[in-house]
Amino acid sequence: MTDSTEHSTDSSDLVTTEVIRDDVLKVTMSRGPANALAPELLSALDEACQQADDTPGIKFVIFESSLEGFFAAGADIKHMRTIDARSFAEYGDQMRAVNDRIENANWISIAALDGMALGGGLELALACTFRTAGPRARLGLPEAGIGLLPGAGGTQRLPRLVGHGRAVDIVLTARQVRTQEAFDIGLVQRVAEGSALDSALSLVEELSGNSLPAMVAGARCVGAAHSMSLTEGIALEKSSEEGLFTNGEAEEGIAAFVGKRAPKFA
C-alpha cells in the first residue's frame, strides 16, 4: 500500500503515536532517561494499543524509542522500592496485561530495537510478532541479579523463541545478548545495518501485500505450537483456515492467483 499523504500524530510526554502510512502506526516511547516501564508509561502504551484498535486500516504497529541507546530498560526499580507486595503484584499484572494485549492484537507488531532492551523492555519486545535489531542492540533479562525473575512473560516467551537451553542461559546468567547472536538464535528476525526502524519499515513492505487476518491467524497458530499437543494444534490450524475461507480473504486470494493479479485484501 502506498504512503498516506496525510500523517496524523498524537503526542504525550511519554509516548508519541503517528500514523506514518495508511496501514502503519508508529509508537515511540520517550520516558527519559531509559524508558523504565513505570505504571504511567504502561498506561500510555495501552492507550496506544487502543488507538491502533480504533484506527481503521491499521495493520502494523511499530514500537520504538526516541532515547539514545535504549529501547526500554525494564521495570521501574525506583517505583518498586516504594510499593508493598500487593502493589507489586498489581504492577506485574499491568505489565503482563500490556504484553498480552500486544501479543493477542488483530494487527502485526514489530519491536524496533536500537540500544538496550532489558528486563521488562525485552519482555515487551518478546510479545511482538517481529523484532528488528540495529548494531547497538543489547538484549537481556537481568532480574536474577536483583533477586527476581522475568515476571512479565519472559520465562515463557523466551524459550518458545530460542529453546530451553539458551533461555536458561540468558535468564540465569543475566547477560546481555548482542545483535548477531540474537539473530543467530532466533531472538530477533531481522538485523539492520543502520536503523532498526528502517528495517522494521522494510519488513512492513515485505508483509503489506498479504492478508492481515491470515497473518494474524498464522502467528497465533505458530505460537500455539509450543503450548498445545499436535492434535490440538492441528485442530486450531483447521478452524483458523476454514474461518479465513468463509470470511472472504481466501476467496479473494485464490481468485487473484487464478487471474494472475495482485489480491485486493480488505
From TrEMBL:
Q: What is the lineage of its organism?
A: Bacteria, Bacillati, Actinomycetota, Actinomycetes, Micrococcales
What EC number(s) does its UniProt record assign?
A: 4.2.1.17
GO biological process, alphabetically ordered: fatty acid beta-oxidation
Q: Which InterPro entries match?
A: ClpP/crotonase-like_dom_sf, Enoyl-CoA_hydra/iso, Enoyl-CoA_hydra_C
Q: Name one Pfam family in it.
A: ECH_1
- Known SUPFAM superfamilies for this protein? ClpP/crotonase
Name listed for the protein in its UniProt record: enoyl-CoA hydratase
Q: Which family does it belong to?
A: Belongs to the enoyl-CoA hydratase/isomerase family.
**Organism in which the protein naturally occurs:** Brevibacterium sandarakinum
This enzyme catalyses:
a (3S)-3-hydroxyacyl-CoA = a (2E)-enoyl-CoA + H2O; a 4-saturated-(3S)-3-hydroxyacyl-CoA = a (3E)-enoyl-CoA + H2O
Is Iron one of the keywords UniProt gives this record?
no
Q: Which UniProt keywords apply?
A: Lyase
The Swiss-Prot or TrEMBL record annotates one GO molecular function as: enoyl-CoA hydratase activity
Q: Which major enzyme category is it?
A: lyase
